[in-house]
């Protein structure tokens, strides 16, 4: 997401004019419409940032995250939620349990991506999971995979510092990768060795050509590769060998119907998102600049929060 902010593009979504960013948010309700029944003034809520049309074929089939007319916070040309007030549909506002903070409520958004990926890949108690990428989405996917019962989760990244965090969050093993395409074969062997068993599911939270090559080669025959990251729009991949091994490729785009589960996972303690919130800033000009500079530096920063 930081790369998207720096380059003003994420996949096919391109910023063409000034816009408000922000899509991970929670807050306190100050006003409701007359017909609203599920929440009330004073309630603390997490906001699911997408507003689907609820009329198209995909919405009616339950795939509202794929709605072609989706209005999603901070997705051009829709403004985001980095503001003092936002207006949002009541059915996309989810009341926080008493033991869940506003910060944890905001973390339902990235956690939803990991949860949806695990649902798409049917992760369960017998599923050995490899995660490529230990950025924020890779780390929440690690938490989700364990919450879904995976007995072994291996995570790989080019950053030893991020892998240290992953280990602290419960990764069973970590592998440092290079950026060189020439290392794919040897790294596949290292990943398989780290797993100590067949890799049933690989979740690519990077989305680069190299990471997808690695995913397709590392995953066992009959396994599943789930593409979450949107690093490269186009890739040249060894699809024929993967098809000959019946490795399924699954796409993930945002999420659907995940917020209630995410709140339950956080409230019950099965997922702890607090360690991912590494920095906090106020909502003023200086703090906003400092916050984005902190994110841009990387290093120890994972999730940077604004407290309004």
UniProtKB/TrEMBL annotation:
Protein known as: Enoyl reductase (ER) domain-containing protein
Stretches assigned to the Enoyl reductase (ER) domain: 3-306
Family: Belongs to the zinc-containing alcohol dehydrogenase family.
One GO MF term attached to the UniProt entry: zinc ion binding
Cofactor(s) the record lists: Zn(2+)
Record's keyword terms, sorted: Metal-binding, NAD, Oxidoreductase, Zinc
Keyword Cell wall biogenesis/degradation: no
Gene3D superfamilies referenced in this protein's UniProt entry, alphabetically: Medium-chain alcohol dehydrogenases, catalytic domain, NAD(P)-binding Rossmann-like Domain
Transmembrane parts of this sequence: none
Cross-referenced Pfam families: ADH_N (PF08240), ADH_zinc_N (PF00107)
Gene, per the UniProt record: LOC112291657
